[in-house]
Amino acid sequence: MKKVLLSVVVVLILLPLAVIHASAATNVQVNATSLNLREKPSTSSRIIANVPNGTVLQAISTTGDWDKISYKGQTVYASDQYLKLYITKYKVNATSLNIRETPSTSARILGSYAKGAIISTHGQTGDWKIVTYNGRDAYVSKDYLIAVTASNTTAKPLTTGDVIVLDPGHGGSDPGAAGYGLYEKNITLDIAKRAKTKLEANGAKVYLTRSTDVYVSPDARAAYSHKVGADIFVSIHNNSYTSSSANGLDTYYNGSRDEDDNRINPYPAKSKELATFIQSSTYSATRLKNNGVKSESFIVLRKNTVPSVLVEVGFLSNSYDASLLKTSSFRDKSALGITNGIVSYFKKY
Question: How many CB atoms within 10 Å of residue 33?
Answer without folding.
Answer: 8
